[in-house]
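Ticket #4471: structure export looks truncated?
Reporter: QA, pipeline team
Priority: medium

Steps to reproduce: submit the single chain below to the structure queue and open the exported record.
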Amino acid sequence: MQVAGQFIATIGWLGLGLIVSELLATLIYMAGQWLGSRLSGGRVVAVAGFRYQVIHFEGHWHWQRPLRRYPHLVVAPPTDPERFNYAALCFGGGLFSLLTVILSLVTVAQLKVSFNLWLMVAVIWIWVNTLKAAQLLPMMLHGRATAALDFKTARESPAAMTAAYVTLLTAATMVETGSVASLPVDAILMPQGGSKQNYLVIRQAWVTLQWGQQHGLALPDLLAGLDRLAPSFNTLPPQDLAIYLDATIYWNLMANHQTAQVLAWYRDTGIQRLLHRYAPLTQYKLQAVYAWRVDQQPEQALTLIAQGLKAAQRERDLTELEWLKDLQTQIQAKKA
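Actual output as written to the record:
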């Protein structure tokens, strides 16, 4: 029994060491991200943790519990694009974590500790920070490209680097205002020379569609833009793929284009898992429009919209609120 008790205690201390290591390593990584943003003239507009986040919305800081998040910072790039330093933004956190790993290895080597509990905790600490430096674990779990891949993709062409700037500006604008409608016209103009196989360029094309829709872009034009994005789906990180698939299915169903391809996408279990994992907020309107257009169940659709409105209000996503209210109005008008 004594041996079993010691084993359980050891496991408990190692588990505690893993949790503390993860929390401290995340703070160190974020500190590097913050310094990188400051060196490039940017400013932090959101600090997301494992379950909660703090955002700068409409001039004030707000505490928020979103549907799904991973630890990261949202940075508004400098207003002067000439000061934009994408390398500092991409690698600031990784360099801080790498420096932590080096200092930890030097410290362990200097102490010359024997193999015991504290050495195992030190190994866990070094291992966690190594994963942070390489960005392997969090990026793979959350379907996002690593900072190294983002930087490599941005370096492919001037158009890709412009797209990297615009997508960062868009993310910050979404946090601060809840929509992309306030983006300047210069930000949504697509530069020449961008490859449709470059996911940063595809992200900017999606921003252009969002901006156009919020400024009166007709539904046929929106569908044509989504159709042009569709051939590039297989080049996208899962997070992006979920967003574009959701939009493609939703707007086709809104237009009552119930093609075999659109219905097959919606019913595919793999796509459903992808959408549920990476775009949980948009699931309400997608399920609602399917219940309305395909299943002919407007009451169920209105129930789903009511749930989506609560979730969108909690996350302060004005774009999603606008789309849900528009769908609600159309369903109610058809019922009247």
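Status: closed, not a bug. The export was complete when the record was re-opened. Leaving a note from the reviewer for reference: The chain has a mean pLDDT of 82.
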